[in-house]
Amino acid sequence: MTDFPQQLDSALRSIPLLPRRMLLDTPGVAATVPMLRGVWGAALHDLHPNAYDTVFAPQMEGRGEAPALYLLRPAPPDPAFAPAVDWMLIGSGVAFDGVLRRAWDVATGMGLGPQRRRFGIRKVVVLHPDGGMGQDEHWGQDPPPVGWTLAAAAWPMAEPETTPCRLIFPAPLRLRRHGRLIEQPTLVDLAVAATRRIRGYLPDPAQHEWQSVSREAMELARRTPAELWRGERLDLHRYSARQQAELDLHGVTGFLDLPEGPGQLWALLAAAIWLHLGKGTIMGLGQMLVERL
Question: Which residues contact 38 (CB under 8 A, 6 or more apart)?
Fold first, then answer.
């Protein structure tokens, strides 16, 4: 047995996160996350190809493709702050903050939709570990924020280990086993997905120790009381400019209740609130919300 909480905390401290909420002005266009991601990526590719390759399609030595160093998702509904998206830089992606912000400036002039309508970024705030919004950020004027590490990710309840809670997945969750979609995910499935997601951002020296942490996370998940998954299939249909094809993204939405709380898994799940789980996370899929039961 490892000292799970301490080793998990040590690993999460090695992963920086810089999350922002951006208030947009998109006249004449119903902007979607894939649409915004596409124009921002195109701007970055032209502006700084090396940064594009590193942030959009990084490689892990000896382990193939690594997870992208960013995440873009719809912001929570808020009449006073809509339309808006959450844009996060993860791990070593934080080091590219300056050029990535510049790419957003370029993207606004490139425009959205078939008519290439210009859009604006009216307001930007950094998000706190509890999800709250900080002060306005003025790009190009103030020193850039430093963000925080995933070890600081907050749990919504004061007693995280023992407070009964519900893990909610409002956007499609795309977990696969043996090439097939998991339609009734368990807490073990979520723990496996969370440890795999975190592993992709860990520095090489931490990889070996993370194997034992991952195994213990699965054992803790097996011993943690959890109700059966309640939800349904939800498939997304979208166009991929990179593949020049229409894609069907199969997933499920629903919730999983933990009647005695998540136990020592709470910090792992708190990190998953920010990183999301499964496939398609860069577009906001696999987002997890937590509510008290």
Answer: 241
Q: What is the pLDDT along the chain (293 residues), one digit of tens a residue?
A: 459 999 999 999 999 999 999 999 998 888 889 999 999 999 999 999 999 999 998 865 555 558 999 999 999 887 777 789 999 999 999 999 999 999 999 999 999 988 899 999 999 999 999 999 988 888 766 666 779 999 999 999 999 999 999 999 999 999 999 889 999 999 999 999 999 999 999 988 888 899 999 999 999 999 999 999 999 987 765 544 444 445 566 889 999 999 999 999 999 999 999 999 999 899 899 999 999 99
Q: What residue has token string 């094809």? A: 245
Amino acid at 230: R
Residue type, 35: M
Does the domain spanning 4-14+151-292 belong to CATH 3.30.70.1900? yes
CA distance linking residue 131 with residue 39, whole number of Å: 26
**Residue given tokens 């894609």 in the structure block:** 247
Does the pTM exceed 0.90? yes
Q: Find residue 173's DSSP bridge partners.
A: 252
Contact 4, 263 (CB under 8 A): no
Question: What stretch(es) of the chain map to CATH 3.30.70.1900?
Answer: 4-14+151-292
Cross-strand pairs, 66: none
Give CA–CA dist 68/60, Å, rounded.
11
Name 148's Cβ contacts closer than 8 Å, sequence gap at least 6.
16, 17, 129
User: 16-150, which class in CATH?
Assistant: alpha beta
Using N-to-C axis directions, what is the helix angle for 97-110 and 49-56, rounded to 10°? 100
Contact 119, 24 (CB under 8 A): yes
Distance of alpha carbon 234 from alpha carbon 245, whole angstroms: 20
